[in-house]
Write a structure and sequence with these properties.
single chain; mainly alpha; globular
Length: about 575
């Protein structure tokens, strides 16, 4: 019976026309196989171990802290590393005093060794890293990374202008956090996708621009690939572009840092210039379908790359597998929506509503001498209701999207259809002076009309000045968060949105409100006193308390072992 099944299977394979796999996909699967071997982790004897029970306390805090983190979920670990480093460097001058008395030692390496050990332990407790897996040798590796960045920073601060120092500090902090994360957790599958997609699109994406050089066009394509595959933020983009400008960075010795220091500021400012170019947003929009296709390939290849490579050459099996991967994703979308809505509502409530009520109540009590309960109720319940309404209405055309992804995957995978891929990207139209200013006047007129209508309605409800400001503030912020959540929910959708009169009206009304919300969120994120207080005066003592409890449990364990 087994022989008969094998014979039928062999005939089916022979009857199927063998199609040659394209070079980028062939290399991708070679990297997948290598990454699969590297990803098999075993408990090591000399691994860093934390107490699981004590770790639960840190995990609980981290989840609460992430409710107030407006970064993407995949960036939470890097954000945690950046918070830790910010606190440590802020109190660095005090920490150094502890090590200056150690004769015969590099006191800074001693300091950074302590920091590295604490950081790794914190990340393990928060479940960002696995317990009993990270070798102790990583402590020394991270200590050198920290010292390397410290030498770079101290050398540069002595001669850069005052106005650039804050930006320089942020740039180096981004590099340090990203390099530490990569040292601890290097995702071979994602790295392989970045290289493969760039190779696939290089030469097939025609960026029409008289301003950009060929090298700059390549950099813009690379930025777009990083944004679509890694969902990279500015910090991660800075790190990957920095490695392009200074490829020797990972292996550089202390004696060779001077050459990098001499060219660092020029390279950093060029990197930020490239990241800020508008053209990479247009490229991202064009190559998103390819990134989605690569994501599907990774999803069903991670478990068994060798078997997946066989399946992509058999049309029926491949079609079935793609459908399963996307169906699983569609089921997760609703759960992800609910989770993101909850996170955003709590974030807004904790960081913004507390401030709002501190202003609203005193104004009502001491200025107007009358509490408007209607205004209070609307300002309390309207934001979460609006968030729910704007996000729950997300619709996904699952069947059509799956068909489009499968069609594109077949173009990407096979050599004979790969050459059919060609993308032409033109910069946005540069309007003439008269037309551009006419559009600006019209755009600001829309703002004025929206404000007038909202204020008119609120005045009818007897809202006072502070009530109105708070309502408009939350309207803008909630609209921005809701739009971002809707975009995240459709990150695997490649079907263009259907344009009609209703979407046009929605854009005319919605875009000014969303843009105002983004502007407010960006400004408030920079001056969020509550978050600063939480990170420096609550998180730091809490982490110290957790470390103390873990040390105490370790001491008790030693005493218990002595009994036996």
């Amino acid at each position: 019976m087994g022989f008969f099944v094998w014979l039928c299977y062999t005939k089916m394979i022979m009857a199927t026309k063998v199609r040659e796999i394209s070079p980028p996909i062939r290399k991708l699967y070679q990297a997948f196989l290598l990454g699969k071997r590297k990803s098999v982790k075993k408990e090591e004897e000399n691994a860093i171990i934390v107490n699981e029970v004590v770790g639960a306390m840190a995990l609980f805090y981290e989840r609460i802290r992430n409710l107030m983190n407006d970064a993407e979920e995949h960036l939470f670990r890097k954000s945690s590393i950046e918070r830790y480093l910010t606190r440590r460097f802020f109190f660095k001058s005090f920490s150094l005093r502890e090590f200056r008395g150690k004769n015969g030692h590099d006191y800074e390496i001693d300091l950074y060794t302590e920091w590295s050990k604490t950081l790794i332990s914190d990340l393990i407790r928060a479940r960002y890293l696995p317990n009993k897996i990270i070798p102790e040798s990583k402590i020394g590796e991270l200590a050198w990374i920290m010292k390397k960045h410290h030498i770079l920073r101290e050398s540069l601060l002595s001669y850069v202008p005052q106005w650039y120092r804050k930006e320089l500090n942020n740039f180096i902090l981004n590099l340090l956090a990203s390099e530490i994360e990569e040292s601890l957790v290097k995702n071979e599958f994602l790295s392989a996708q970045v290289g493969s997609l760039y190779e696939l699109l290089h030469g097939r994406v025609n960026i029409v621009s008289k301003v950009l050089t060929p090298e700059e066009k390549d950099i813009q394509l690379y930025i777009a690939v990083l944004k679509t595959i890694l969902k990279a933020d500015v910090g991660l983009l800075r790190y990957h572009l920095f490695l392009l400008y200074f490829p020797q960075w990972h292996t550089v010795r202390e004696s060779d840092l001077q050459n990098i220091i001499l060219h660092f500021v020029k390279g950093a400012r060029q990197i930020d210039h490239e990241i800020g170019r508008e053209i990479n947003l247009l490229i991202v929009a064009k190559i998103k379908p390819f990134a989605v296709s690569y994501h599907v390939l990774r999803e069903f290849s991670e478990e068994d790359p060798e078997e997946a490579y066989r399946q992509i050459q058999i049309p029926q099996e491949f079609k079935k597998k793609v459908g399963q991967v996307l169906d699983k994703h569609y089921r997760k979308v609703r759960l992800r929506l609910i989770r993101n809505v909850w996170r955003s509502v709590v974030y807004i409530f904790v960081t913004k509503m507390i401030v709002a009520f501190l202003l609203e109540f005193p104004y009502d009590l001491y200025v107007t001498h009358k509490v408007n309960y209607t205004a209070l109720a609307i300002n309390v319940f309207f934001p979460p209701f609006l968030m729910f309404l704007l996000t729950i209405t997300v619709q996904i055309s699952a069947k059509k999207n799956t068909e489009q992804v499968l069609l594109l995957l077949n173009k990407i995978i096979f050599k004979e259809t790969l050459d059919a891929i060609s993308l032409r990207i033109r910069p946005r139209v540069k309007w003439g002076f008269l037309l551009r200013n006419t559009f600006r006047i019209f755009y600001f007129a829309i703002y004025a009309i929206i404000f007038f209508v909202i204020i008119r309605i609120l005045r009818q409800l007897e809202f006072n000045l502070v009530n109105i400001i708070i309502f408009i503030f939350f309207l803008f912020i909630i609209s921005f968060f809701s739009m971002r959540i809707r975009i995240l929910a459709k990150d695997m959708i490649i079907i263009p949105r259907k344009e009609n009169i209703f979407t046009l009206i929605l854009d005319v009304i919605g875009i000014p409100i969303v843009r105002a919300g983004r502007w407010l969120n960006n400004r408030l994120s920079r001056i969020n006193i509550f978050i600063f207080f939480l990170d420096f005066f609550i998180e730091a003592p809490f982490k110290f308390f957790v470390t103390l409890i873990e040390g105490w449990t370790g001491y008790l364990k030693e005493k218990k072992e002595e009994v036996y």
